[in-house]
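DM between two lab members

TW: hey, do you still have the P25-alpha family protein entry open?
JB: yeah, one sec
JB: this one, 322 aa:
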Amino acid sequence: MDGKGFAKLAKDTKLIDKKLTATDVDLTFNKIKERTARRITFDQFLTGLEQFAAKKQVDVGAVQSSVAASQGPILRGTAAKNVRLHDDTSTYTGVYAQGGPSNVDEDTSLNNLLDRSDADVRGVKTGGAASVAAVTHGVAGIHLVEESKGTARPAAKKGKKKAGGAAASESAAQSAPASSLEQVFTTYAAGREMDGKTFAKLCKDCKLINKVCTNTDIDLIFARNKERTARKITYQQFVACVTDVAKKRGETFEADSEKILAKGGPVFSGTQAEAVRFHDDKDQYTGVYAHGGPSTVGGTGGIRDISELCDRTGADVRGVKH
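TW: and the structure you got?
JB:
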């Protein structure tokens, strides 16, 4: 039994009074349970009843009788009041009293809502009715030519990547190797001082972070070598940080310096989107994208700006043409 159930039992059996308060019940539960446990056993429960009797200054049998007389937990809830306009049917009006049409008498299932007349594999009716797509393309002046089953689609252009649901590949821009640590420091810091975020990126790019020297270690090394009130480090402090990183990794300063020099500068990585067949392969274009159509940006009598929408010929004050 947990503490919440123990307190509810004391409340339902009316053991809580001025001598035994709810706080006393919680303190008794903490005394009788194990130190690291959150529940009590039956033997501990009996011990708790004995402490209840001592606290109330009554016989243990009286407390046990009160608990035994209980038929179980008392569940309380809010009972809804009567609502006259809902519960009293004599107050009903309209279709609730006189009756009226119903929308559930007839069979309105999905089976009766579907058009099951004959159609081809594209949904075009075989009775001769034109499809919506055919009418729309006819108005636009586009002629649809159906492909025969044996006609193969034109092959995609060479050099195009296949579109798929796989994650896009990542690409990174590499820098040329540097000749000195100070050159790398200047390249990363873009100045004479380097902040903690940039130092952590340098260590990540140079693969100085591993299980032995973690990101937390890099931050601690940076905080240990910078000035107390400063937020950035100088080149001399940067060299001291690299020395501490090498000690933490169990390597020499020269070995870590070679890794930093080989990197040369920051690595800028990003996500490179894969090719999308229906966007990149123009052989897949249909409609006005493939056959052309009306334009609103000039070239086919379109409107270029709002001045061509206004009639600027002469008129009187009422807008009547001369």
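TW: got it. The chain has 15 helices and four strands. Residues 147-151, 159-167 have pLDDT under 50 and may be disordered.
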